Amino acid sequence: MSITCGNRAGHSDGQPAIHATIDAVRACCTAGLTWACDWLLARTHPEDAETYTVECGGLSWHLADGRGTTCEFGHSHIYAEVRHRERWDYADDDEEARRLARQGVMPFTMDGKPFDLDSDALLPAAGLASAL
């Protein structure tokens, strides 16, 4: 979905902009601070299948609850102190997810989904703890 934003003052060129979501239009018009999303995206060149990386570039703003930031394309980041307080964190892969889980921290993928960890993966750590 594309929505034309009428907030000309909110755009550097003074022209209306197209946003992906109603939340983005709302943020563009009411958020105290907005910026271009710098989330890195992998792209593949259609002619030679070469992979390259670009920044998202979508409109970003602070979440209303103060926990982090988000962008109009759904890229979000929750601040480290919030993740620590809530006992969860991002994990890059299954190995890191298991390590976090063994420390009592709930692991999540970079897109905010919980890792599906087999409970048996945590047994060696439990056995080690009981041996101490």
UniProtKB/TrEMBL annotation:
This is Uncharacterized protein. It comes from Amycolatopsis thailandensis.
